[in-house]
């Protein structure tokens, strides 16, 4: 499965998924590799088999079209989707179809539903003709570029846990909105809750570089939420991916426009306070060397 720089990927690029979604029930099957050779691969999935596949925080039914034995990846078609969404995915994106995994699919859908009943009134599937536009200020984009340099060329990782972490930043934003509006804002509270929920779900699924996976597994070994460990650098990556995530969400157009406005307001706050939030130290994966 191809790797990509987090926060700078194209819309059709496949996401990196956490190792927590391991497939089971492996069997041996013959597949054809890229050079045309037939070889045996231990895999639970065969060409033509229907599976469940993770895509943008949700689980969809898909069909395996090809198996790449050398890279141990699968070319799949999402059932009911246009062919342009067909993609190569790793085995960690796929699950067999059984009652347990279907229940997992249903539970995940329920988790992603808006908790506020007012958010569901008049809700309808919007036409997905274009992505929501979230403008990231150039001064914030520099942090994405700088971190890309750190991790891809220098082999550095953000030292965890971060201070302030994502929860801290969201709490400060709520205080900022309360002072600005002269009262506690229900809308701001909903936006903050949504950002936190999306961040915790999206981080292992699509916000990490491949070289950060082991660090994530270690940092969350005690079931600590990512929003309590990671900081502004990783939070900013979420805003790069949010248009893609919201592209598949059932959100009324008017609600989506209001959400877009609130997300831009949060980015302005992040930009204004960037000298306080982007303070992370960096280290090598083995923790042997740190830089500020």
From TrEMBL:
GO terms for cellular component: histone acetyltransferase complex; nucleus. It comes from the Eukaryota. Its main location: nucleus. One of its GO terms (biological process) is regulation of long-day photoperiodism, flowering. InterPro entries: Chromo-like_dom_sf, Chromo/chromo_shadow_dom, MRG, MRG_C_sf, MRG_dom, MSL3_chromo-like. Keywords: Chromatin regulator, Nucleus, Transcription, Transcription regulation. Residues 1-26 are annotated as: Disordered. It holds the Pfam family MRG. It is found in: Nucleus. Residues 9-26 have a biased composition (Acidic residues). This is Chromo domain-containing protein. It comes from Lactuca virosa.
């Amino acid at each position: 499965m191809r790797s990509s720089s987090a926060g700078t990927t194209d819309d059709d690029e496949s996401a990196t998924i956490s190792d927590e979604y391991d497939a089971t029930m492996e069997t041996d099957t013959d597949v054809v590799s890229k050079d045309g050779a037939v070889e045996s691969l231990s895999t639970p999935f065969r060409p033509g088999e229907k599976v469940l596949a993770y895509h943008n925080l949700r689980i969809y039914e898909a069909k395996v079209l090809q198996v790449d034995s050398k890279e141990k990846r699968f070319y799949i078609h999402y059932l009911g989707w246009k062919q342009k969404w067909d993609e190569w995915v790793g085995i960690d994106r796929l699950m067999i179809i059984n009652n347990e995994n279907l229940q997992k699919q249903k539970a995940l859908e329920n988790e992603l539903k808006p908790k506020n009943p007012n958010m569901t009134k008049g809700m309808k599937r919007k036409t997905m003709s274009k992505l929501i536009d979230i403008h990231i200020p150039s001064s914030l984009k520099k942090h994405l570029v700088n971190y890309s340099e750190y991790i891809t060329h220098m082999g550095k990782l953000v030292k965890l846990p971060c201070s302030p972490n994502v929860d801290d930043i969201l709490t400060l934003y709520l205080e900022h909105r309360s002072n600005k509006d002269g009262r506690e804002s229900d809308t701001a509270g909903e936006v903050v809750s949504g950002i936190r929920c999306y961040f915790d779900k999206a981080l292992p699924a699509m916000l990490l570089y491949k070289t950060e996976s082991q660090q994530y597994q270690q940092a969350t070994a005690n079931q600590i939420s990512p929003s309590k460990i990671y900081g502004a650098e990783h939070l900013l990556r979420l805003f790069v991916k949010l248009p893609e995530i919201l592209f598949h969400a059932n959100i009324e157009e008017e609600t989506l426009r209001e959400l877009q406005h609130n997300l831009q307001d949060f980015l302005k706050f992040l930009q204004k306070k960037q000298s306080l939030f982007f303070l992370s130290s960096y280290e090598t994966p083995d923790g042997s060397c740190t830089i500020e």
